[in-house]
Amino acid sequence: MQVLPFTDKENAALANYVPVYVMLPLGVITSDNEFEKPRVLRKQLKKLKKAGVDGVMVDVWWGIIETKPKSYDWIAYRKAFQMVKEEGLRLQAIMSFHQCGGNVGDVVFIPIPQWVRDVGEYDPDIFYTNRKGTRNQEYLSALE
């Protein structure tokens, strides 16, 4: 059994520790799949690390990654992920299969992939539809 060099009080605090993750800005990867402002992000990551944050969370937008069916482009996200690693932070990647933005005050807009929206032109039932029959093209319907 390894004995940690902590007091009983410190061990008790660590046993109840909850990791702290901070969400990265929505537009860290642009809708054109570009790593936006890497110098600014690196500076922010350094500040987060210094503040004792455990890691960061980033949305991985379907509309950026899969612009063609079964064709995935991770290059901008890989650059961002590498930077997070270099700064000694952990990463939570949240796979976001819905549209980003489009509401009042939103500054980032990333729709679901165009090829999916094209399919929706012929089969609108792929889009979420509420009980009143209102369709929403920001995300897809659940399969039955």
Automatic annotation (TrEMBL):
GO-annotated biological processes: polysaccharide catabolic process
Protease listed as a keyword: no
Database matches in InterPro entries: GH (IPR017853), Glyco_hydro_14 (IPR001554), Glyco_hydro_14_CS (IPR018238)
MF annotations from Gene Ontology: beta-amylase activity
Coiled coil, from the record: none
Catalytic activity: Hydrolysis of (1->4)-alpha-D-glucosidic linkages in polysaccharides so as to remove successive maltose units from the non-reducing ends of the chains
TM segment ranges: none
PROSITE patterns: BETA_AMYLASE_1 (PS00506)
Any one Pfam family match given in the protein's UniProt record, by short name: Glyco_hydro_14
Record EC number: 3.2.1.2
Keywords, alphabetical: Carbohydrate metabolism, Glycosidase, Hydrolase, Polysaccharide degradation
Cross-referenced Gene3D superfamilies: Glycosidases
Enzyme class: hydrolase
Source species, domain of life: Eukaryota
Similarity comment text for this entry: Belongs to the glycosyl hydrolase 14 family.
PANTHER family recorded: BETA-AMYLASE 1, CHLOROPLASTIC (PTHR31352), BETA-AMYLASE 6 (PTHR31352:SF40)
Protein name in the entry: Beta-amylase
Organism classification: Eukaryota, Viridiplantae, Streptophyta, Embryophyta, Tracheophyta
